[in-house]
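Would you mind writing out the residues of a protein together with its fold in token form for me to study?
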Amino acid sequence: MSDHTAEPSPMLFMETVNAYQRTAAIKAAIELDLFTAVGESSATAQELAHKHEATERGMRILCDYLAIIGFLTKENGRYGLTTDSAMFLDRRSPAYVGDATEFLLSPMLTDGFKDIAAAVRKGGTVMSEKGTIAPEHPVWVHFARAMASTMALPAQLIARLVDATPDRKLKVLDVAAGHGMFGVAIAQHNPHAEIVALDWPHVLEVAQENAQKAGVEDRYHTIAGSAFDVDYGSGYDLILLTNFLHHFDPPTCEQLLQKVYAALADEGRAVTLEFVPNEDRVSPPATAMFSMVMLASTPSGDAYTFTEFERMFQRAGFSRSELYQLPPTPEQVIVSFK
């Protein structure tokens, strides 16, 4: 919320217009693996330049910039990691998310932001007729490979949320599984869980690789094709809908949810991970801003409020839905009961 008592300033405008510089700097630091080098030992610009075969001037300017915007510390000419950078940008950390830039900065995604004015006039993406939801769009293989590490933590949190006492068999369908981490996490958490992952064939190859790495490949099965067209089967205890519904308008979501409802066992639950803004649609900021991604990349997707999701699930036949926060992530979980 803006401070109406402060003097008017052009700084917000200037910082926003120049935000591409932040993107370029963090991308360069990840390409240079700078955060890992600093995490191994605090270092001067000269030492870092020597290690990365770069110029001292270039390294100094990049590291100073990263310190200014909050990714590094600087004391007595030596750079160190902030708490966040140590957790998420040092490649040695199990929570490392640097690989996500390969998807988030892919032209297949960023091209949608080249003419937002046109997208506003049209009411949806101007990249192509269907944007990123075109059948077998290559962006989703890119997504699966780049975003697995980023989704590892929320996947583990969801596994504990929906299966607090993992002492019984679970039949789980992971719709639009992508990297497969959500189903994999449940299989790791519950040795009695059987996972069925649904996605395009080339995307499923990535999910199966991750299931094998996690040692759960014997309980990991697949269905290849469109979530709107293939036969799900039936009797699922859990159906996962992670970061999927936001790509479509409410009638399309309801069509899919009717199919999900029919595939669930009598006491089954649908588990939805989404960016769910408050009813004002402008808070919390990190969640509410996601609607712009949908405007740029899809024909009719959006970041829906809980009231809107609740209505969709009710129209599809579900008895009730519950909303859960998922800190420290910016997303929320909706558990919907048959």
Notes: Residues 314 and 320 are 7 Å apart (CA to CA).
